[in-house]
Amino acid sequence: MVEYRIDRHSGVATYVQIVQQTKQALRLGLLRPGDQLPTAREVVEATAINPNTVLKAYRELEREGLVEARRGMGTFVRRTLGAAPADSPLRGELEEWAGRAVAAGWDRDDMAALFTAVLDKSFQGERS
Q1: Which end of the chain has fewer CB atoms surrounding its CB within 10 Å, N or C?
Q2: How many domains does the chain have?
Q3: Which residues form the HTH gntR-type domain (predicted)?
Q4: Is 93 within a domain?
Q5: Cα 76 from chain centroid (whole Å)
Q6: Lowest pLDDT segment from 77-81, 82-86, 118-122
Q7: pLDDT tens for residues 80-105?
Q8: pTM higher than 0.85
Q9: CATH number at residue 62
Q10: What are the distances in angstroms from CA 95 to CA 35, 60, 88, 103?
Q11: Considering the domain boundaries, does residue 47 fall inside one?
Q12: Closest Cα to residue 8, out of 47, 39, 38?
């Protein structure tokens, strides 16, 4: 089951953080079709956010066709995203790189900026 972490200082709306974290779990294969998302009550208890915020995020995920709400049962994954399993060898390489960057004194924003620049360069041709 996914555990949401809310960063109140990120400037990103709380419901968007839930949507993004759910999509990340779907991309990594941590959530699969048929899996149940935490109930709104469970998310509220774990994160101290408004229940309507959780429901807004779940409605957004449902609108995108990723989950479905089943009355009286909960919210369930309908489909997955991407093909980047959590146990990919590339993940280990990326973790090693991140460890070296931290050891070199880089912070999260430094790493994100470099990674984004490399991604942008790698996918240049797809924007045509």
Answers
A1: C
A2: 2
A3: 12-80
A4: yes
A5: 16
A6: 82-86
A7: 887 666 667 887 899 999 999 999 99
A8: no
A9: 1.10.10.10
A10: 27, 31, 11, 12
A11: yes
A12: 47
